[in-house]
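Troubleshooting log. The previous structure file for this entry was overwritten by mistake, so regenerating from the original sequence record. Sequence copied from the archived sheet and checked twice against the printout by T.R.
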Amino acid sequence: MTIVFYQKDATVYAVQYQTSENSLDVSKLEWLFSGAHKIQGDALKGYFIGPRREMITPWSTNAVEITQNMGIGGILRIEEFTQTACDNIPYDPMLQAFYKGLDQHIFTIDKQPDPIIYIDDIRAYNVKEGLALNPDEIAYLEGLAEKLGRKLTDSEVFGFSQVNSEHCRHTLVTKMFSQSETEKRFVSFYSNVAYTYNSKYTLNGSIRVDQSNLYGSDPSVQFKPIWSLGVAWNLKRESFMDQVDFLNRLDFRFSYGLGGNSPKPGKGGPYNLLSARANSMFAGLGIGYDIMYPANDKIHWERTRTINGGIDVAMFNNRITASIDVYHKLTTDLLATKPTDQTLGWESFYTNFGDMKNQGFEVSLRTKNIFSRNFSWSTVLTMTNNRNKVLKLNLDGAMTASKKVYMDYIEDYAGNSLFAYRWAGLSEEGNPQVFNAEGEIIGDYQDESLTENAVKFMGVTQPKWYGALTNNFSYKGFDFSFMLVYNFGHKMRRDVNNFWYGRLTHNVSKKFLDRWREPGDEKYTDVPKYVSKTVENKTKSRNITFYELADINVLDASYVKLRDITLSYSLPKSLCDKLFMDRITLRAQASNLFLIAANNDGIDPEYHHYRSGLRGTKYGPSWSFGLTINFK
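Regenerated output below.
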């Protein structure tokens, strides 16, 4: 028996079953078919295109399995059909068939074996049957028939098409012309002027003007100058510093400038950028086109205003040298891909849509701790601190809690911000719960009280402090060095169990063992329960993202890592001379030997995706050995 479900967009689902109709849960099927309703009667009039009755589609196999997981038994086949307005709509005869009405016999196969047919004209047969054989394949079959001394049968030609046709190679039947070219054209004028007076005072300035085809066609955005102005004062050369013997150098620097970034090629301009695509739903109608990037003739420079002040100092016969830079950057008209109203025909477009500021400092310190004839020890320390804030962001639509937890740029917050639901534990049924902004416990993800203020700012995924510490030791012909790198002050999501429903087909996280199993477990675990049926996993009272994106699963991503250790030995010069060599050096190096991380989950933040919580491929220690020979 067959029942038919009809959807308003002219999509029809036909369900073949072997039990009584009363045993089928029609409401579940209507939910599965996105609100399609069961028709009254045994047949549906009209014109339809759908899969051939002789071929069960992979989509049908998956759909039947889903119904089994939903607890609906007895279903043999489910196929999707499209209603058409007339009987002359083109379709792919190899995969599809035309139906005049859908009745109880659409899946009935009552066909006697056809007599063997010998093909006189393979080219004509290819067109008639829609086999999609290309000219080279047709020529091969014609040559095979000549070699065999007989005509090929229809089953031989059809079987060959199944194995070697363009359908099986997943290529397009319609030949497409393809050509790509990237051309970047700039007309640039650049000037730089510097003047130093009495080796004490330096003034420099630069200006650059660009015109490029990477911008919109509007003349007002084509011509933008970039410039900077800087001054420096060598204080050590002043006469009043002559008595300060411990200082070898003392320079002050200041600069102000305006820079910018241009749009990426192809993303901004007066024309839509298209991509050719084929779709089986429109078989026979040729190639369709997607708009990859819509036209935007107003796109223009991303501009950055930078203020920078710095000090360079050397003292105690250059045994201590340091550079300190403080900066403030204001970027306006940020370039990025902006989500938009999908009714316009595309999901997003590349444009200027915000302002952002960055400020911080950079320090570089080098010391010669010990320096003698046979032994030396020096240290290099670098440190960078950066803080930023999104000042303006032109986004469409209202902000919601479900949007905010996924976004990394939000107005009045730092860039690369991380937001999380406020965890309220599991319910008595083992499902996730969170607090809203008023502190009320919420389990329904559609609850209107779950506003954007219900989620919590956890920090940023970009390190606030980062740098490196390097020590170099030298004793006679031996050199030894090691470098530590550090990143502090940022956050990351924990990698949690991601197996919540359905059939087990792969390895799962060991945290799966900690899941809720029976009432009362909510007092001891935060891991939600597992459900066997797909339909039970996403309900109003069960939203797994409440747990996956909760504040309890946000960790400190700070770490210190021993990046490398290097030991080398250079042979004595007397020995090198005897070997007619200038220098011979043996070297051994080890990398990534140990890690000190702030988290207790065994996560190496360097190989972790901070926002999604997914672990990347972790690389262990590596060793290398080398020999360097310099000839005279």
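The mean pLDDT is 85. Archived copy saved in two places this time.
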